[in-house]
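Retro notes, structure queue

What went well: the backlog is down to a handful. What didn't: a couple of records were mislabeled last round, so from now on we paste the full input next to the output in the thread. Example, using Contactin associated protein like 3 from Champsocephalus gunnari:
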Amino acid sequence: MDFGTKRVAGIIAQVALLLCSSSGTHGADVCDSSLVSNLPPSSFRSSSQLSSSHAPGFAKLNRRDGAGGWSPLSSDGYQWLEVDLGERTTISAVATQGRYGSSDWLTSYLLVFSDTGNNWKQYRQEDSIGSFPGNSNADSVVQYKLQQPAVARFLRLLPLAWNPSGRIGLRLETYGCPYTSDVVGLDGSSSLVFRLTPDPRPTSREVVSLKFKTLRNSGTLLHAEGERGRGLSLELERGKLQLLLRQGRTSSSEPRRLSSLGSLLDDRHWHHLAVERRSSHLNLTVDKHTERIQIPAEFSHWHIQQLSVGAVQSLGSQKPVVSQRGFHGCLENVLFNGLNLIDLAKHKDHQVTLMGNVTFSCAESVSVAVTFPGPQSFLQLPGATASSSSGSVSVGFQFRTWNKAGLLLTFDLPQGGGVAWLYLSEARVRLQVHKAGRALLELGAGSALNDGQWHSVGLNSRRGRLSIIVDKEEGGSAHAAHSFPVTVESHLFFGGCPPENDRQECRNPFNIFQGCMRLLTLDDQIVDLIMVQTRQLGIYSNLQIDMCGIIDRCSPSRCEHGGRCSQSWTAFHCNCSDSGYSGAICHSPLYEQSCEAYKHNGNTSGHFYIDVDGSGPIKPQLVYCNMTEENTWMVIQHNNSELTRVRPSPEVNQHSVHFDYSTEEEQLLAAISQSEYCEQELSYHCRKSRLLNTPEGSPFSWWLGGPAPGRVQSYWGGAQPGSQQCVCGLQGDCVDPQHYCNCDADRAEWY
Ligand SMILES: *[C@@H]1O[C@H](CO)[C@@H](O)[C@H](O)[C@H]1NC(C)=O
Ligand SMILES: *[C@@H]1O[C@H](CO)[C@@H](O)[C@H](O)[C@H]1NC(C)=O
Ligand SMILES: *[C@@H]1O[C@H](CO)[C@@H](O)[C@H](O)[C@H]1NC(C)=O
Ligand SMILES: *[C@@H]1O[C@H](CO)[C@@H](O)[C@H](O)[C@H]1NC(C)=O
Ligand SMILES: *[C@@H]1O[C@H](CO)[C@@H](O)[C@H](O)[C@H]1NC(C)=O
Ligand SMILES: *[C@@H]1O[C@H](CO)[C@@H](O)[C@H](O)[C@H]1NC(C)=O
Ligand SMILES: [Ca+2]
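Corresponding output:
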């Protein structure tokens, strides 16, 4: 096999992989083997079981073993059944059935997936409805094909509703096929560098694709470098992926941002990334969204010499171009024009160099997040243990939300000392200590904390010194001016208060919190949220434990015409001011499409905004509407209406004049095409100054203009386009009949 066919084979393999991961199974790629029926009982786990014959291992489709399926001890909204498929597997469909010979079946459920048995991700069908309708009796099988196949090792089914005259009862099956992949783990300073062999005929198209997973919201993922240090890189910045362009190796050339795509990419779930380039056209894909980007023309003959995956490694020199943090996390199936770079690295290919600590596995740190979807969400934890009631308290956690306000934490001070509220207000963290309706203390720290990023909060009281700290170094802190000892002896309430709250132990005069929290610490001890989930610690309601269900409703933005998108936990909002449009998504045009329409409305001559294509993409433009005649005129002014005097000069043999219309080309073209008649005026007064010289051959002067962009024109003053004449030539009344333009007659008078 020569190199050419090998590369073609590589590309075909890669295309097949893209299809499989992004648009499901097609044609011959059958992916519907039973995944559950042959698993041993040890592969099943559940929140609880009614008896040993209702154990989760009996939850296999069409089996009658044990009690004929799984039933939990109590039927409530806190139950789940987990299946460990042994390794990451492509899951294409799921089927459920009730417990054999019983009145126990599910009518609705959620599916969540995980690689590790930790950090679950809820599966949503395309219509973004999360719940699956279940069964209507104990025996018939209801099967769903997943519109987007999932790749996971662990699967959990969470019952939402069940037969009202029965219990939760379940048998299930999932269908799919094996998933094979190559992974690497990178630590923020390590990288994998691929050097391309110089190719006299470089490929016209470059494709890079990979999957990544990280919990850091920043870091360089890819950097491609070519001649003279010119490069393109993809970097994570605040959880979004940025495409950056570097003009050269010198530090003075700041990288230019060409595009930003995706959001919340630091969620420790796999994300798919693909970059395709053909000369200066580039397609960037993150998960399901593709953006077409035009890169500067200088890059159309640029060729990649080196591709760094992870931290930036500069060509030649050993020290990195920019001392920036590299990617920290895992990468899978890194393909460059069909070449599997991780596989090449494993086989010690000479083109691939590993820099720093690169592992061929994906190490996962365990941190359990919890979602407060509201409105009845709260988490109650026991306060101080006996050992720490020494006048000090230390509570810490991280949160992420889109809401500007909400209760983070409240607790009572001992001996009727009042109540402490730690809450978000106007996107800042505030602390209030109240007693008998009077504020004893108020502190505030941080700003713009509703940006969807993780923020840390620490509340500390040591030796009477009370402080709140937001985001450690980068954030803000506030300290009580005078000594104010705080301890917690009863309970801590996170996010909200229990609905039955007879003893008034928890009161919330603020909004509820909607968002995620993680890394809860009490007296520097991390709270085990899995123990909370299994009801061995604290009390909770309406929480999603071990997943963060945050969604960015502004990415991609559904606001049209440049309307600015903002969001809360439950909704997004478009600010259409200055866009020229109105409505929920800035779709309805504020302005009429023509001067004619304003005249029809009864307006008289004046300046008006015209939106030639209505709700189409062309922006409104300000024009003058002259309605004095029967015909309505739309007047679009240029910036050069004063006479300019042109004098002969021995050094300068040409003179050029620029006319700049205040509207964009696209707007002008649309305005022209919707008009019945259109004219523009340019007058040239001459004395002994030839314009055309001869009717044939090259004219002495020309102008550039429409209808198509920038065409050379050589007709003047009312003559026919393409005629190379002035109007006297057309009318046959030129002062010198030898010439078709009075300027060409070399007379001493002005024309
Ligand atoms: C980008 O995507 C469009 C639409 O799928 C396609 O027509 C175009 O060829 C792609 N461009 C590149 C450079 O791959
Ligand atoms: C490399 O990374 C692995 C896994 O993260 C770690 O166990 C090992 O200690 C690291 N080695 C060095 C030299 O840092
Ligand atoms: C919309 O944006 C404008 C300009 O930035 C601002 O003045 C206005 O207050 C915003 N409106 C709303 C409802 O946020
Ligand atoms: C056009 O006429 C309407 C009433 O017919 C009036 O409300 C509006 O202000 C006028 N617009 C201008 C720019 O004069
Ligand atoms: C409006 O059009 C009329 C007739 O063409 C013209 O006489 C008048 O000067 C124009 N008004 C303005 C303000 O351009
Ligand atoms: C009109 O605008 C063009 C382009 O910006 C500029 O070159 C030209 O000097 C301007 N003319 C006048 C008279 O301001
Ligand atoms: Ca428009």
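Agreed that this is the format going forward. Reviewer comment attached to the example: The chain has six domains: 1-29, 33-178, 183-355, 371-545, 591-647+655-681, 685-751.
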